[in-house]
Write the structure tokens for this entry.
Amino acid sequence: MQTVEDFPYQVNEHPHVQIPMPDGTLLSARIWRPETDEPLPAILEFLPYRKRDGTAERDALTHPYMAGHGYVCVRVDMRGCGDSEGLFDDEYSPQELADGVSLIEWLAAQEWCSGSVGMVGISWGGFNGLQIAALAPEALKAVVSICSTTDRFADDIHYKGGVMLGENTGWAATVLGWFALPPDPEIVGESWREVWLERLQNTPFLAEKWVQEQARNGYWKHGSVCEDYSAIKAAVLSVGGWHDGYRNTIAHLVENLDAPVKGLIGPWIHKYPHFAAPGPQIDFLGEMLRWWDRWLKGIDNGVEVLPDMRRWLMDSVPPATIYDDRPGRWIADSAEDINAPAESFFLTGKSLSETEGPAERIVAPALFCGQATGEYFPVSLAPAGTAPGELPADQREDDALSCCFETEVITASRAIVGAPSVRLKLSADKPKAQLIARLCDVHPDGQSTLITHGVLNLRHRDGHEAFVDLPINQPVDVTLTLDHCAYQLPPGHQLRLALSSSYWPYVWPEAETAVLTLQSGALSLPVREEPAEETSVSFDPPKAAKPRRTRQVSAPENKKTVAKDVGSQQLTLEIVGDTGLTEDLDTGLISGARVQERFSIVERDPNSAENHFTWRRTMARGDWKVEIFADVSMRTDGQNFLITADLKTSENGAEVFAKHWESTVPRL
């Protein structure tokens, strides 16, 4: 990545600017301002992840670059987080979004601001950028939303397809540890300890809340911009990666927004595209600058005529849990062509056939299916090259535990571009059941690469707002839409559809294992035809501002192990991710994080499923040191989810705060 230090504007950094909210709470902002008397647009990034240390590395690469090109870049810690006052209550809460609107109004009113504001963010910041845009503050003219969602229930880290994800409680543990850190004493002064204790005493038990809300109700509809796409008036650049958990948002926004919108999706994981793996990385800062220039400064630079969708069409590669680069090519499509024309394959016997026939197959319980799925959104804590792979492994082990259908060896290449879907007529021997569908590329030597997948709670077959039991041993019609993809299947390979009724630890299993009987079905495969004249898509190599100056104090550690106890038939997955300790040479702040995840299940006993997440975070300077211990676990007794959580903090080895939570939440 090219480092750029000479910009059109000199940039001055202001590390702690307090912005008042209507209730008097002061939010802390780090502001990069171009050295000029000319009023300029402002770009807001609004996050809970601690601007002083949490996102400092990526902020250094991004915000000074934009400021150097004539924008006031403003990175704000959310209420109750980092160096801001107040108390955190929940993700995307009404208070958070109201604060976001107030921030935009404050920025637009400053003498150094032209009155136009943009919002940028990845993940949490990508979410709230869209959600605040849906509230339509007048000054907000444009948004760049990366790795986000339009539907907080159907397509987020909590639930997917109506099924609770294994990472639901894992995310609660992450939040518990992140937001328990104190403000930086060097920034906020002597009040830091008082602020810290107030936060700790008011820590919400989000693991309980997120397990309680098991259907798509008002809690999840709040902040789901799919409820009313027309509410968004700002121009939206939606960005994602094929190796991220949020693959569908880009298409949903491009298809549904009335406001100006463009989509961009590469082979990347849950990172900014100028430094995300796998490659190729792109000049994403240049892409953003072009977006801001058009919608915040009114420069006629042609972004309106960019293709509606620019997607990286991935070539077929052998399965691997980490790739440095993912071969392929850029393709361009209009909003009308997001899903390529469908090609139908019928589930006939063991085949995906062009001729319709009965399926007459059984999807038998197999609780160990799912070990090859990889992480929900791969985002290693460790530097590139040091971490074990988090991407899907060879699918053959999971395929062997699934009900599989295959095409003949194909003779002509197929570009699968869009969202495949599966239509099935099936029956179940239990009133509650899940269905998981995986689409795989079977290589000539038998290796199986995951192309895309989808999950569905079969009691949500008619919608996610209500649970409708399956009629025992009576056929029902089901449609399962898989995640969007762009994948080139070459000649000599086969396409495999693998169906299972569990997928641990990706999703939480039902309390009773169900046997599904398939009567018939069809796979709808979006196959993109090569256009007569392909629109050229290219990007410059990545560039960024100079990185922050750091010193690695202790080495990172990352490992992933899977163990099976033959006697007890228990399968255990353990993951360790450790950043090591890093010192910021400009602030003197030393920080680090370590997470340990454990997932276990016993064959033929779905109620043995258990997950356990432990976070340790460190913050130090000189002879001062703060440590955070956050622990969340969940198991089930069949009728209920049993959740426990612990939060402990210390300063210089002495305990400051400790709290224990327990909750029993009925399974719906």
Observations:
- The two ends are 50 Å apart (CA to CA).
